[in-house]
Amino acid sequence: MKKIFILLASLLSVQAIAQDLHIQAPNGQISLNVHVKNGSATYDLSYKNKSVLEPSQLGFQLQEQGLLQNNWSLVKVDSAEVNDSWAPVWGEQKTIKNHYKELAVLLKQNSANPISLRIVFRVFNDGIGFRYEFPEQEFLQHFVVSDELTSFNFTNNHKVWWIPGDFDTNEYAYYTSNITDVATLGKKKDGKIFTATPIQGAFVQTPLMMKTADGIYINVHEAALVNYPAMDLKFDTQTFEAVATIAPDAVGNKAYMHAPCHTPWRTVVISDDARDVLASKLILNLNEPSKIANPSFIKPMKYVGIWLEMHLGISTWDYAGKQVASDAESDGKTRAKTKHGATTENMVKYIDFAAKNGFGGVLAEGWNTGWEDWFGKWKEDVFDFVTPYPDFDLPYLSQYAKNKGVGIITHHETSGSVTNYERWMDTAYRQMVKYGSPALKSGYVGRIIPRGEYHDGQWMINHYLRAIKKAADYNIMLVAHEPVRPTGLHRTYPNFMAAEAARGQEFNFWSEGNMPEHETILPFTRLMGGPMDYTPGIFKIKKSYYIPGAKEQVHTTLTKQLALYITLYSPIQMATDLPENYEARPDAFQFIKDVAVDWDDTKILHAEPGDYITIARKAKGTNNWFVGSITDENARELVMDCSFLDAGKKYAATIYKDAENASWDNNPEAYKIEKITLTNKSKVKLKLARGGGTAISIFEIK
Ligand code: NOJ
Ligand code: CA
Predict the structure, then answer these.
(1) What SS3 state is found at 564?
(2) CB 302: neighbour CB atoms within 10 A?
(3) pLDDT over 50 at 330, yes or no
(4) How confident is the model at residue 462 (pLDDT cuts 50, 70, 90)?
(5) For residue 317, which atom of ligand 1 is closest to its CA?
(6) What is 4-285's CATH number?
């Protein structure tokens, strides 16, 4: 099956003459031009003969060597075509097609001590990727990047779904505006985000989703972010050009490089059908194949855990029963007199619940000493990641979980003190192995230590990857909260199961929360780079159920929470609500018990950023499908065409849908369950309430 053919190599060897180089996607719809003219190198891009990017800049400002943007001669052009496929360890589909054409230009400065730079472009049917490579060379070895000058020169004042540029956090709510409004809207402060370092001006983060007036969807991000800072974009609101900004370090430098080396890929996904954006595997294709020789320890799973109760303020992370999420991450208004959550007794309850309902893991937060001290102090030695609180009997619980066939998911909140965490990592991971804990949730709430570093700077980028690799050495699966936004590295390190790196469900419990459109935007933005640990599955939607008078709520209906297991892809999914809330509604809980977390196939049925998404996925190794359909604050009707099912077969479907009178604000917990038979000729009308959703399980009738 594997087909790789290299077409042509080394076309030209030319000096200082104007060059217009051209490359097209395999299906001819995307065209990329590279111009080396008057010493500068630019690129432009079109889709179906419409301009997507006008000539856009390439280059760098280096600290010692100066501007790397002019003064170029074209030395060599290479081109190639690759057409193959590969199988991920886990994922949305069994095999992934990787078909692109490549154009690489080798540039050399016209100077006494010339620097060489190679720029590699890959054009796929669904977009492009390009990166800079610094070959081994005489006049450039160690160097410091002061700025990357890459730009994306958009043609007009497009509609953009964006969050403000920030070197420390991606936990903002999304804005939808035109490019011209980015500068003014991004100034709003979100007090519930603890460590935020917004960049002043018209800065936005990637993945950045855009739509042109004539209906072309454009998504800009990066792939394989390794040993380099994360990229934000700065818009020129007059010309609509977006220029790269990479996060600085504590002394204001950006990236420390040593040739031969290269940058991450800059990616642009393009289509006139929004469904293609969600289906794109371009970012994964630009990452390296798996480096984990024996991935048998990597098992997609659903989990439950001691978590929501702290975020609701009904138990605490710390032993003394003082610190709840509303103190830690909110304004303290809903603070309750309460008690420690991660006790042996409580953990036994969760383990029993997990075992009874087929969940693979149980998370315990607040199991280890240090929480008295963790929040906001910028203190270096807070946690040791190995010492349980006296009321959490780790040896007993490990054995108890093992006997029940459940794994304990360990939690390491670094509190941003990464120097301390790095000192403890081996000891802590060794302890996890000793107690048979298969997975780790890490967290980076707080200002980073080494002081002055940012979450998105090169030092932290290297830390996150060190943690992923070290976890792999100990056969541990990893989920990271508050890391940099993912860039497809889970292809290379499939033990990196998921990340938060966006505004998760937790915001609904102690802030104004996530508006109903939030989950219709996430797949087009944050999830472009990799799975998210969003923590879906809330059945008790309003916080006033627990704390009379509380205003907070999840902006959802109950069945939308079920649909999120499909529309927000992750190989590790939490059943987030309290066991008693699931036990009270066994009919709806059945969907969470049934739904798969690893897939042989995925079909995007409907999609429009900020409005609605319907996805159908085929559970790994079966002929069963699960569908999730969600809407924003508007009620809507969508028709599910079942042609994705096998012809000639019959399927038993259970439809979990909003009741007639349901809506996220007035009647969020009203649902109906219906059973019907489907064939591949069926068309099913999906009626979504305001802020609602539908989930469907489809089992083949044998
Ligand atoms: C923020 C994380 O997103 C959340 O899941 C966790 O419970 C708290 N930090 C405490 O570590
Ligand atoms: Ca978080």
Answers:
(1) helix
(2) 23
(3) no
(4) very high
(5) 10
(6) 2.70.98.10
pLDDT digits (tens, 9 = 90+) for 625-676: 999 999 999 999 999 999 999 999 999 999 999 999 999 999 999 999 999 9
Give CATH 2.70.98.10 domain extents, the chain: 4-285
Q: What single-letter amino acid sits at 302?
A: K
- Tell the residue nearest (CA) to atom 2 of ligand 1: 481
Which residue is closest in CA terms to ligand 1's atom 6? 443
- H helical segments located in 178-223: 182-185
How many residues can be counted in the chain? 702
Beta bridge partners of 628: 615, 695
In the chain, % of residues over pLDDT 90: 91
Helix (H) or strand (E) holding 459: helix 458-473
Q: Which atom of ligand 1 lies nearest, measured to the CA of 441?
A: 5
**Contact yes or no for 158/210 (Cβ under 8 A):** yes
Q: What are the structure tokens assigned to 247, written together?
A: 């996060």
Q: CA-CA distance, 629 to 560, in Å (whole number)?
A: 8
Span 292-501 CATH architecture: Alpha-Beta Barrel (3.20)
Indicate if the pLDDT at residue 16 is higher than 60.
no
Distance CA 331, CA 192 (A): 8
Helix (H) or strand (E) holding 569: none
Strand bridging mode 407-413 / 361-364: parallel
According to the model, what pLDDT value does residue 323 have?
Answer: 64
Half-sphere exposure of 187 (CA within 13 A, CB side): 5
Residue whose token pair is 């800079």: 132
Select the CATH number that applies to the domain covering 515-527+535-543+553-702 from these four: 3.20.20.70, 3.30.1360.20, 3.90.105.10, 3.40.50.720.
Answer: 3.20.20.70
For ligand 1, the distance from its centroid to the CA atom of residue 663, given in whole angstroms, is 29
Q: Which of 692, 634, 688 is nearest to 668 (CA)?
A: 692
Output the residue whose Cα is nearest ligand 1's atom 7: 307
**Parts of the chain belonging to CATH 3.20.20.70:** 292-501, 515-527+535-543+553-702
To the nearest 10 degrees (0 to 180), the angle between helices 558-567 and 586-594 is 0
Distance CA 103, CA 82 (A): 12
Q: What is the pTM of this model?
A: 0.96
Q: What amino acid is encoded at 418 in this protein?
A: V
- Is 90 exceeded by the pLDDT of residue 326? no
Give yes or no for residue 500 CB within 6 A of ligand 1. yes
Rg (CA), the chain: 25
